[in-house]
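Hi P.,

Sorry for the delay on this. The queue was packed all week, but I finally got your sequence through. Input first:
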Amino acid sequence: MEGLKISGVWATVGLLICSNIFMTFAWYWHLRLQKPGAAHWPIVAIIIVSWLIALVEYAIAVPANRLGSSSGLNVAQLKIMQEVITLTVFVPFVLIFMGEKWRWDYLWAFLCVVGAVYFVNRSKL
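Then the structure:
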């Protein structure tokens, strides 16, 4: 039974990674349209496309959180896990898709969130 719970946690992580990729694109893809030479989209079209992308994210995130909860994770653990995943997905997105330069602050922010992971789980260590 314990192996089933651990595999459920890993499945939760995988699903949350997928959902976060979609949500990152839903929130930020349109910012590339503000760069010189980019096509102009009306804000209504941007909102509709973003909501369609976010719909896919919700269709993945909701089952991921239910699976994580049924695998023994509490809400705080799920939220902190999501924040770590957010940074893990967001930094490559910013560097690759958005073309921004690396900043060491990204690493320091990530380490702070890793500290949060420790504190939310230390009673189980």
